[in-house]
Amino acid sequence: MNKINTLALTLLITGSIDSIRNLPTAALSGSLIFFFFIFAAVTFLIPTALVSAELSSNINQGGIYQWVRLAFGERTGFLAVWLQWINNVIWFPTMLSFIAGTASYLIDPTLAQNKYYMMTMVLFIFWALTFANLRGMRVSAKFTSFCTIAGLIIPMTLIIGLLVTWVFLGRPIQLHLTAQSVMPDWHKFDTWTSLTGIMLSFSGMELATVYVNDVNNPKKSFPKALAFSSVIILTTMVLGSLAIAFVLPADKIGLVDGTISSFSYFLSAYHLSWVTPILTVLLVIGSLGGIISWMVSPVKGIAQAATNGFMPLYFGKENQYGVPKNLLLTQAVLVSIVCLVYLLLPTVNASYWLLSSLSLQLYILMYVLMFLAALRLRHKTKYNSGTFVIPGKKFGLWLICIVGLAGCALALLVGFFPPSNVDVGSKLNYVIIYTAGMIGLVMPVCFFYIYKARQLRRKLDRLSAAEEVVLEAN
After folding, report:
1. Which residue, of 83, 265, 429, 474, has the greatest Cβ tally within 10 A?
2. Alpha-carbon torsion 210, 213, 218, 224, what sign?
3. Is the dihedral of CA 325, 438, 420, 348 positive or negative?
4. Which pLDDT score, from 0 to 100, does residue 60 have?
5. Rounded CA gap, 413 and 407, in Å?
6. CA–CA separation, 254 vs 155, rounded Å?
7. How far apart are CA 66 and CA 81, in angstroms?
8. What is the chain's alpha carbon radius of gyration, rounded to the nearest angstrom?
9. How many angstroms separate the CA atoms of 34 and 242, rounded?
10. Which of 33-44 are b and which e, b meaning 16 or more Cβ less than 10 Å from the residue's Cβ?
11. Which letter, b or e, does each residue of 209-222 get, where b requires 16 or more Cβ atoms within 10 Å of its Cβ?
């Protein structure tokens, strides 16, 4: 088997994190873009990469469920994999909102701020993809690569090129950077809300590190790939976010259509408006490819919980195409319920922010379990020589995990506060919906714990009854 070299690993890590969809959210931080991206990289991106790389390299048949299960037992392992799956249920509407908002530029750009249009399009696209996946729809590697090129590489290169040209030609800009403006006001906590969007753009690093065992000399290659990919991700995300913040006023940045509206603004200024529809189609295709590849995999991961007794076997049953039909349909129903948030908040931007922040919070809770599992497994499990281990022995591991946990704690805190430049209506109403969402999405785990305990009790009762019958027969 051919081993993955440093370049290939760098591209794998970059491709799993970098996303043009997150640029408008990051652009809301304005002149604080540099500070928050560097802060998030140090306290979140690098710690999650290093810890997940160590766990992937040393735990056979790795994955968040396996890591946390070995460290703290089956119940906590199930909680971790549930958080990973339910985060996707919240993530799907945000990705679909980006697609619907971008596609609106082929019809009427004002539709991107119409919550009824957004909700209808999100539901239509997701149910259509659900029924397609019920027939065992698979995405080929070539199609996935095409989607990456169409939806990420081409648009990201273009928007950075347009930014450089815009600044070089001395065009008017909306954002002015000074030594004072690039640092947050430590007395105003609401400035830290932008950290939510930045961290969201860095989540998912653990998914790329599954390749660590297929890398040539992982002790040297992985740190290099991590360093290179971090620089690429930081550079493209910062410049892409600046491209939007430079041309659009903060109150005009649409979270669902900010990317395409910035392109439209740039291109119209250069009398290239005819390129906008082409770019719109590329962004839609690229985003659809990302969703298709994610619809079934997380479902199959949580379906394993059914085989382990945490859920009724009804959810684990597969159809003739090897797809967990009942769970896939349940996922679609849950996504439909989540979409009701578009009717509960006054603007599309507010709904998009709430769902994005809620998705990140659930993911952050999973990362907390991952950091704690790494600390326990280093003491509990003997790692083989030659595998990737965080440098610095126990001190290095504890330092990385403590920094990562501190970053997670801050992200969890600021998530309850919406940014001042997003109209969420009543802040109390926002916090109530947000808190109810967090509780409602995590609470089912308790019911599944009770379900498994009852199933185990019934099994023990049956065994006891059978033993009594045998004793009576003797």
Report:
1. 83
2. negative
3. positive
4. 65
5. 10
6. 18
7. 9
8. 23
9. 9
10. bbbbbebbbebb
11. bbbbbebeebeebb
pTM comes to 0.84
Q: Is there a contact between 222 and 53 (Cβ–Cβ < 8 Å)?
A: yes
Q: Which two tokens stand for residue 383?
A: 């790692």
Neighbour-count burial of 186, counting CB atoms closer than 10 A to its CB (0-12 exposed, 13-18 middle, 19+ buried): exposed
Q: Please state, rounded to an integer, the average pLDDT across all residues of the chain.
A: 83
Q: Which residues of 108-118 are buried (b: 16+ CB within 10 A; e: fewer)?
A: ebebbbbbebb
C-alpha torsion angle, residues 31, 35, 41, 42 (rounded to 10): -170
Copy the structure tokens of residue 409: 């704690």
Letter for the amino acid at 358?
Answer: L
Residues 414, 316: Cα–Cα separation, whole Å: 37
Provide φ and ψ at 391, rounded to 5°: -60, 155
CA distance 72 to 220: 30
Q: Are 151 and 103 in contact (CB under 8 A)?
A: no
In the predicted model, is pLDDT for residue 407 greater than 90?
yes
Q: How many residues does the chain have?
A: 474
What is the rounded distance in angstroms from the CA atom of residue 356 to the CA atom of residue 350?
10
Nearest-angstrom CA–CA distance, 447 and 445:
5
pLDDT, residue 33, reads 87
Q: Identify the pLDDT of residue 473.
A: 66
Tokens 């291109």 correspond to what residue?
267
**Type of residue at 433:** I
DSSP symbols for 151-182:
IIIHHHHHHHHHHHHHHHTT---S----TTTT
Locate 239 and state its tokens: 């410049």
Asked whether the beta carbons of 447 and 82 are under 8 A apart, the reply is no
Helix H, strand E, coil C: the string for 252-274 is HCCCCCHHHHHHHHHHHHCCCCC
pLDDT, tens digit, for every residue of 186-241?
666 667 777 877 888 888 777 666 566 677 776 677 777 777 888 888 888 888 99
